[in-house]
Amino acid sequence: MKIFCVGRNYAKHAEELKNEVPDSPVIFMKPKTAVLANGLSFYYPEFSKDIHYEGELVVRISKSAKSLKKERVKDFIDGVTMGIDFTARDIQVQLKEKGLPWELAKSFDFSAAVGEFQELDSDQIKSSSFTVFKNGELVQEGHVREMIFSIEEIISFISSRFTLHKGDLIFTGTPAGVGPIHKDDCFELFLNKKCLLVTDIK
Ligand code: MG
After folding, report:
1. Which residue among 32, 70, 148, 184 is the one 20 to 30 A from 156 at the CA level?
2. Strand partners, 53
């Protein structure tokens, strides 16, 4: 199983991190050891002092695909859910300054919390919105229509470089409102007002 993630896919989030809006999708990967299942706690790792949450819509691939045209992407999705792309922001800033790869900041164990999947058709996905609550307070709100690159464009682009297989996951980018996590925080992520992911920080 592969996990692809999109960076800078919402204009306001690119702005809050002072990044330029990209002209093609920014893609990075996490290994399958990054998965944190719904309901499990995230343990604050010792190597960072500034882990951030990034709430994201996650799409699951239904069957093998290579070089998909945008129009065909909808036949290769069998579920969507919410996820958190946990990011060691302090380490990412250092890596960015040196022009180095992001894995140490983004791809460590349990850095990809993944919720319960829902089967939605492509129209339902396109009209979906989501929210992230931290300790009961709304901190992020996103809508699929606000993505810079659509889900079809992202998956078509990824499949032009990487063969996709059943079960591969795509984290589609985070909207504005990211921030630090602290021990004892509790995160609840909702897709279309349905709670699909809960995790607390230990
Ligand atoms: Mg992200």
Report:
1. 32
2. 179
Rounded Cα–Cα distance for residues 188 and 7 (Å): 22
Range of the domain at 12: 3-200
- Which pLDDT score, from 0 to 100, does residue 174 have? 96
- Domains: count for the chain: 1
Residue 107's CATH number: 3.90.850.10
pLDDT digits (tens, 9 = 90+) for 34-50: 999 999 999 999 999 99
Q: Which two tokens stand for residue 195?
A: 């709670």
Residue 56 CA to ligand 1 centre (angstroms): 7
Q: What is the pLDDT of residue 197?
A: 98
pLDDT tens for each residue of 81-132? 999 999 999 999 999 999 999 999 999 999 999 999 999 999 999 999 999 9
What percent of the chain clears pLDDT 90, i.e. is strictly above it? 93
**CA–CA separation, 175 and 130 (whole Å):** 10
CA–centroid distance, 71 to ligand 1, in Å, is 25
Give distance in angstroms: CA of 78 to centre of ligand 1: 21
**Which stretch of DSSP H or E encloses residue 76?**
none
What distance in angstroms lies between residue 13's CA and the mean position of ligand 1's atoms? 10
